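INFO batch 0412 | record 1 of 1 | parsing
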Amino acid sequence: MRVRIELTNIDDVKKFHEAVCKVKEDVRVKGKDENGMPWEMSAKSLLCSLILSQRAQEGREHTAHDVDWNTIWCECETDIYSLIQDFVVL
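INFO prediction complete | emitting tokens
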């Protein structure tokens, strides 16, 4: 399963993190930086939540991490759509 996600505030980040931590399988957050270079990290990691929270708190399009916030995807081998549907961009 691969879906584009959007986390617009700190509550979204917290709820998303809580949801993916319920999944036994690995859940990845993937995207690109401002230069188009791909990156990825575990959606369950505290570091991922901190980076996403910083963006949501500052309300800026980019942070010091130079993430292109229009390219954020969530990937998991199993279907977790029902857990993260509030954050999916159609």
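INFO post-check: Helices lie at 10-20, 46-58, 81-84.
INFO record closed
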